[in-house]
Design a protein that fits this description.
2 helices
């Protein structure tokens, strides 16, 4: 496989996994908050939104760093 192509595939996979893992972490924390506080579904919704925001920020920072090194 072309070295440049494999680099970009690896980078895009890493960016996608960063985004998904932040959302999954927010989901787990939200479910835990709902379980312990009995606030179903508000903790889940709030922490999923935090996960989306955190994942988006991580992807933005990583993409910016990649573009500056180009």
């Amino acid at each position: 496989m072309n070295n440049g192509l494999s680099h970009w595939l690896g980078t895009s996979l890493r960016l996608g996994m960063d985004f998904v893992s932040a959302i999954l972490l927010g989901t787990l924390i939200g479910r835990g908050v709902d379980f312990y506080l009995g606030s179903k579904p508000f903790g889940l919704v709030i922490f999923i939104l935090f996960g989306i925001m955190g994942g988006s920020l991580t992807v933005y920072r990583s993409a910016k760093k990649i573009m500056l090194n180009k």
